[in-house]
Amino acid sequence: MRKMRTSIWRRSAVRASVWGGALSLSLGGASAARADSALAWGHNGGKLGNGSTTHSNVPVAVTGLSSGVTAVAGGESHSLAIQNGAAKAWGRGHHGQLGNGSNTDSKVPVDVTGLSSGVTAVAAGYAYSLAIQNGAAKAWGLNSDGQLGNGSTTWSSNVPVDVTGLSSGVTAIEAGRFHSLAIQNGAAKAWGNNVYGQLGNGSTTWSDVPVDVTGLSSGVTSVAAGGYGHSLAIQNGAAKAWGLNSDGQLGNGSTTWSNVPVDVTGLSSGVTAVAAGYEHSLAIQNGNVYKWGTWTAGVGFGATPALVLDQPRDFVDIAATNASSYALSADGSLWVWGYNEYGQLGLGDTRWRDTPTQLLAPAGYRFTGIDGLRDHVVATIAAVPEPGSLALFALGCCVVIGRAVSAAGRPTRPGPT
């Protein structure tokens, strides 16, 4: 999801309808949205990046990120983005997780020191951040459990530091609450907290430098770090899982923890994406989304993968937060379900959803990415103009025909800041 030129949009002439599990709202007016923009919604406190600390149950624009945004990441209390190859950060800064040389909070994006170009990926954990710059892994923020991976026991760093041993060949990076994962030359690496075996190296010893994940020395194309202590990966099209398994989040039919990767039942081929929440997991296999663990919408606990929607879909991306799930289809539509206390589903209310609700993307616009860790999400949207078509844009919960206006008048959900 991405968005517009102004920091917030006003609603007018609202018409809403719900059909077949889909929510659609339309608004009056006429204007084009900006492509490659960042949106955020849910719990705020500054991490929505719109200059406010008020929670929002509908998407709001992230200040200054109206174009050129290629990736976003949502952490526990802060957010990250890549704009024109540069890393941006906003939200809480108490442990230096904004990476701008201070420990001060910011309600709007700030530049990350030393990452003004060449950044291709970002990840946000609990008060710490990760990035890839020119193939090298960088880290900053809280280092209580060695999650910065620089071999230091220093409590935190408010500027990026090099991750030991990952100076080249890094193609993916992920942050859990207190442990980190990366892919280097096709091999999975892990560092940080390991109390549940989430580093996957056959031990429960923490490590402040990257270690090899057992059995994943080649063929790894994706990794995901769960909030409470489990990890996922894709190796040669098969899903792997390790770490905490008290709620079946490893998906192997048991609740036994594992400090080495295990096979996820039924997902031995055709897997293209994985996502790890606090106590649940998601995967895409042959375009369909599967879920397992707890807080997985309607089925409660399940120690093996279950299909989310019984009709075939062409899903391309997924995200899992504390107890909410998000699935992005190739047509640009977004499906959301789960916990919604702060409006993190983006549907304009705070009602939980036991089954997926579709967020319709209109013709000419599509959601392109989404990420989160706890109770807010950050997303991107890109416009695909069609000659002679009416300008449309998507606001997560809304199909919109409208024009950008000032922040005045847009309703938001009040709440604690």
Q: Roughly how many Å apart are the termini? A: 24 Å
Q: What are the segments in which pLDDT stays under 50 over at least 5 consecutive residues?
A: 1-34, 388-417
Estimate what percentage of residues fall within beta strands: over 45%
Q: Mind describing the biggest β-sheet?
A: 6 strands, mixed
The tally of helices reads 0
Total count of strands: 32
SSE-based structural type: mainly beta
Helix content: under 10%
List the keywords.
single chain; 417 residues; 6-stranded mixed sheet; 4-stranded antiparallel sheet; 32 strands; 0% helix; globular; disordered C terminus
Describe the structure.
The strands form 8 sheets. The protein has a 6-stranded mixed β-sheet, with no helix packed on it. The radius of gyration is 20 Å and the shape is globular. The N terminus and C terminus are likely disordered. By secondary structure, it is mainly beta. The two termini are 24 Å apart. β25 and β26 form a beta hairpin. It is built from no helices and 32 strands.
What does the secondary structure layout of this molecule look like, with pairings?
Layout: E1 15-19, E2 22-26, E3 37-42, E4 56-61, E5 69-74, E6 78-83, E7 86-91, E8 106-111, E9 119-124, E10 128-133, E11 136-142, E12 156-162, E13 170-175, E14 179-184, E15 187-192, E16 207-212, E17 220-225, E18 230-235, E19 238-243, E20 258-263, E21 271-276, E22 280-285, E23 288-293, E24 302-307, E25 315-320, E26 324-329, E27 334-338, E28 353-359, E29 365-372, E30 376-383, E31 393-394, E32 399-400
Parallel strand pairs: 2-28
Antiparallel strand pairs: 1-2, 3-4, 3-30, 5-6, 6-7, 7-8, 9-10, 10-11, 11-12, 13-14, 14-15, 15-16, 17-18, 18-19, 19-20, 21-22, 22-23, 23-24, 25-26, 26-27, 27-28, 29-30, 31-32
